[in-house]
Amino acid sequence: MYGSTNCGSQRFRCKSCLHTYTFHNYLVKTHNEKVWFKLWIREGYSVRQLSHLSKHSCSKLQRIIQYWLDNPPESRIDFPEVKHILFDGTFVHGRKSIVALMDNSDHRIRAGMYGVAENSTPQLTSFFIPLLRKGLCPESATVDGNPQVIRLFRAIWPNIIIQRCLVHIQRQGLMWCRRFPKRTDAIHLRRLFQKVVRINNKVEQEKFLNEFFNWEERFGSTINSKPEKGKVFSDIKRARSMLTKALPDMFAYLENTSIPPTTNGLEGYFSRLKANYRQHRGLSPKRRKNYFQWYFHLKSK
């Protein structure tokens, strides 16, 4: 040992050449600086705000951010423990979208990926197959009703229980029935859609089904046989078709309380994610993808 530097670091002296030197642990330094990257991801702080907090220059903070964006995290999730999931997607950058999978037991994101479209079977397959290899075997999945997603879930996990999101069914049905419908069949169908999210037990389920079958007996055959192709009538046909196809997968949550009836938890997560992402627009495509990987890793809830 040979005294210390002006910064307080220990100085050493070689006994052979008598030169002095110090040791630098750059790995520790890099990980200590990661705190500013975490604030950039989690809180959506700008580089200028971080510079004010850390007293580092903006260029120094940009180098820290770029370093961690170029080194995405590795997943260490115990997928066999995940049993009841929510799955959904959303657009975040033009027509580019992300998909995410949430565990209903603790409402944490277990997997997510940027650049995967919900209506693309090859892209969804590339997302699900690695999860299957890591041990993911869910008992149920709550989804928004996208047919490609449902078919793929049943192809990969044949015994999975599908729960259709009740909020998506209600929202789409009310939109097709209009806010102030004039047709008698649309008025009665709209009342049915208003009850979708208020079914909490078997008695209410039975009452809802009876009301739907009565509506179907009264209006269904007439709607199906009419050649009319107007916009309003076509939307009523769509609403009837959607509800008819959704019925088999609407009430799984009444059999098992661990199954969520809606994807609201995931929708709320997406809202917070997009609010943070808007603070960092302008990332390159590669770093944009890694940004979302870091976000899912650091802010999974």
Structure description:
The protein is α/β, with parallel strands linked by helices and about 300 residues long. It has 3 domains: about 1-25, no CATH class; about 80-165 and about 260-300, Ribonuclease H-like superfamily/Ribonuclease H (Nucleotidyltransferase, domain 5, 2-Layer Sandwich), CATH 3.30.420; about 165-255, no CATH class. It has 13 helices and 7 strands. It has a 5-stranded mixed beta sheet with strand order 5-4-3-6-7, sandwiched between helices. Helix 5 (about 120-135) packs parallel to helix 6 (about 145-155) and helix 7 packs antiparallel against helix 8. The two termini are about 50 Å apart.
Descriptive keywords:
51% helix; elongated; alpha/beta; 301 residues; five-stranded mixed sheet; 3 domains; Nucleotidyltransferase, domain 5; 7 strands
Which helices and strands, and how do they pair?
Elements: E1 12-13, E2 20-21, H1 26-32, H2 34-42, H3 47-54, H4 58-69, E3 84-93, E4 96-103, E5 108-114, H5 121-133, E6 140-143, H6 147-156, E7 161-164, H7 166-177, H8 184-194, H9 202-225, H10 231-246, H11 252-255, H12 264-277, H13 285-298
Helix pairs in contact: 2-4, 5-6, 7-8, 7-10, 8-9
